[in-house]
TrEMBL record:
NCBIfam families: transcriptional regulator NrdR. This is Transcriptional repressor NrdR. Residues 48-138 form the ATP-cone domain. Signal peptide: none annotated. Transmembrane segments: none annotated.
């Protein structure tokens, strides 16, 4: 790797895993000017494409998924760590599948299944937005299903 200060070659002085275990942090030293700098090495994942209900395609956005789940869990006793783990698990499962395109419906169903087990109120909040309930009867049916399951 080239030195960012003088452009000469550098050598690796130390390597270790980054805190998330998803990258390697390398301490480097320039062979010419002697200055030190750090680099992060990550696996380059192919893009994951989400196919929306109307057929549009967009790149998977982890922050968008996290935001929706955070909104559903707002003012609920759901720890942030549990929410982040849920998002991590869903993203990992989607990326490990052989398909590079995933229907948004599949993502929504995965979120709802996980939220149902974590917090019933957060589940109903997410489901009401995701399923676009048209009236109170649809909302009541969803609540009754949840109550029967518990």
């Amino acid at each position: 790797m080239k030195c960012p200060f003088c452009g000469a070659e550098s050598r690796v002085v130390e390597s270790r895993h980054a805190p998330d275990e998803e990258a390697i942090r390398r301490r480097r030293e320039c062979t010419s000017c002697g200055r030190r700098f750090s680099t992060m090495e990550r696996v380059e994942a192919p893009p994951l494409i989400v196919v929306k209900k109307d057929g549009r395609r967009e790149q998977f956005n982890r922050d968008k998924l996290l935001g929706g789940i955070l909104k559903a869990c707002e003012k609920r006793p759901v720890p942030l760590e549990a929410i982040e783990k849920l998002v991590d698990d869903i993203e990992r499962d989607l990326r490990s599948a052989l398909d590079r395109e995933v229907p948004s419906v599949e993502i929504g169903e995965r979120v709802m299944n996980a939220l149902r087990a974590i917090d019933g109120v957060a589940y109903v909040r997410f489901a009401s937005v995701y399923r676009e309930f048209k009236d109170l009867n649809e909302f009541r049916e969803q609540l009754e299903q949840l109550l029967r399951a518990h």
